[in-house]
């Protein structure tokens, strides 16, 4: 991907990352590195450095809760869980996405005709 295309992709990712986080957490609670790995597999986040500040903002806003857990007596990890508010936000995002996504797709298909 060239620089211009990467800049566009980065801007799109920034715009939807919060809702992608909520979608992943809607399936199960995860600790930060696990969440970063899941999003990275989908090419939805560039780095953990962009994810952790977002998670802190989401926690402050009430869309995720956190808890500390030490699996198998190991090192404690902060787990993130979607809240009822987060689910409501995710549902709203989904309804908007399904409405405007096809419109954007249509514009891209029609351009230059």
Number of strands: 3
**Beta-strand content:** 5-15%
CATH architecture: Orthogonal Bundle
Low-confidence runs: none
Kindly state the mean pLDDT as a whole number? 91
The radius of gyration computed from the alpha-carbon positions, rounded to a whole number of angstroms, is 16 Å
Count of separate structural domains = 1
Strand and helix order: HEHHEEH
Organism: Microbacterium istanbulense
Protein name: PadR family transcriptional regulator
Domain Transcription regulator PadR N-terminal: 21-91
Describe what you observe in this structure.
It comes from Microbacterium istanbulense. InterPro entries: Metal_resp_DNA-bind_regulator, Tscrpt_reg_PadR_N, WH-like_DNA-bd_sf, WH_DNA-bd_sf. Pfam families: PadR (PF03551). This is PadR family transcriptional regulator. The relative contact order is 0.14. This protein is of the alpha+beta class. It has helices at 3-27, 32-41, 48-61, 84-110; strands at residues 30-31, 64-69, 77-82. Helix 1 runs antiparallel to helix 4 (84-110). Strands 1-3-2 form a 3-stranded antiparallel sheet.
């Amino acid at each position: 991907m060239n620089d211009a295309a990467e800049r566009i992709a980065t801007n799109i990712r920034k715009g939807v990352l919060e809702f992608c986080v909520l979608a992943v957490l809607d399936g199960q609670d995860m600790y930060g590195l696990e969440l970063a790995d899941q999003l990275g597999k989908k090419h939805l986040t560039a780095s953990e450095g962009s994810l952790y500040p977002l998670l802190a903002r989401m926690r402050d806003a009430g869309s995720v809760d956190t808890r500390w857990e030490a699996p198998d007596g190991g090192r404690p990890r902060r787990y993130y869980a979607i809240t009822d508010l987060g689910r409501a936000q995710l549902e709203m995002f989904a309804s908007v996405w399904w409405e405007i996504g096809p419109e954007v797709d249509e514009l891209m298909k029609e351009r230059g005709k």
